[in-house]
Design goal:
single chain, 280 residues, alpha+beta, Aminopeptidase, 2 domains, 12 strands, 37% helix
Length: 280
């Protein structure tokens, strides 16, 4: 344990870590999902979870893999985690979480990780508990294994449009295709397909716990935008997720994305927090 009371968590810390995520099970759904799936074993995490202790009590944590995500933190905690990160070198390519915590983390870094590739400082975090305010699209359904050939290009297009770089860049094509297939096999992929089997609208669940699920990858084919497909489609997805995965459906969206924000509001999503995302 270092001078800030930080050490790497392991299987024996799982119960205490889940007690931290339980402080806000919707905001912390990503971290809880990762913990339940890996039991905090670094071999399966593809990274580490750091815990900060006061005496023997776990008071804050930080998921550190491709995404660095604060859990149960206040600004002082994340500044401590930032100092720990500076001592151990950059491992994450993205810092994401509640706005004030990401801001405090990056302030403590003070440019040591170099210039960020993208900074999104105001991302409304939205929650849905139903019922929908609009009629769900009856043509939205779970994607199947035989849909992957059509679904995969739509997923690549959405990711590239949202992040600014293809998920298949740098030799990542095989891994990304495997991720698409994994979500389909879990029943976590929904889409509306046209008569030729091409994707018109799609969305996925990225992570889930018994209490909440986080939706990602919402996309409408460019030539069909502005026709209401996202509104009815998200109503269908949100209700399906609420029935089959978890009772609360969440997502976060860029503040400048007015069409998406308007669509989610029409469905019945309400803002509960502000996130920020910084990418290197």
């Amino acid at each position: 344990m270092d001078d800030d009371g930080i050490r790497v968590l392991g299987r024996g810390d799982l119960a205490d870590f889940l007690a931290l995520t339980a402080q806000d099970r919707v905001v912390n759904v990503f971290a809880e999902h990762r913990a339940r799936a890996t039991a905090l074993d670094p071999r399966w995490l593809g990274g580490e979870v750091w815990g900060r202790f006061e005496g023997d009590v776990l008071v804050a944590a930080c998921h550190v893999a491709a995404n660095l995500v604060p859990v149960g933190c206040d600004p002082d905690d994340v500044r401590r985690f930032a100092r720990h990160a500076l001592r151990h070198g950059r491992r994450a390519s993205t810092v994401v979480g509640e706005h004030d915590l990401v801001a405090a983390f990056c302030d403590e870094l003070d440019g040591a990780w170099g210039p960020a590739r993208d900074e999104r400082w105001s991302q409304p975090h939205l929650e849905y508990v139903g019922p929908p305010r609009v009629a769900p699209d009856p043509l939205v359904r779970h994607s199947r294994a035989d849909d992957v050939e059509a679904l995969h290009p739509a997923c690549v297009a959405m990711y590239t449009e949202e992040v600014g770089v293809s998920p298949e860049a740098g030799g990542g094509a095989e891994a990304y295709l495997a991720r698409v297939r994994q979500l389909v096999s879990r029943g976590w992929s929904w889409a509306r397909y046209d008569a030729d089997g091409q994707v018109e609208f799609k969305a996925e669940v990225a992570c889930a716990s018994p209490w909440a699920a986080q939706v990602q990858g919402v996309w409408v084919r460019p030539d069909l935008r502005g026709q209401g497909l996202a509104v009815a489609g998200m109503a269908a997805v949100a209700e399906s997720v609420r029935r089959e995965v978890a009772p609360v459906v969440s997502l976060y969206v860029n503040e400048w994305n007015a069409p998406a924000r308007a669509a989610y509001e029409k469905v019945g999503f309400v803002e509960t927090a502000r996130f920020a995302t910084v990418m290197w």
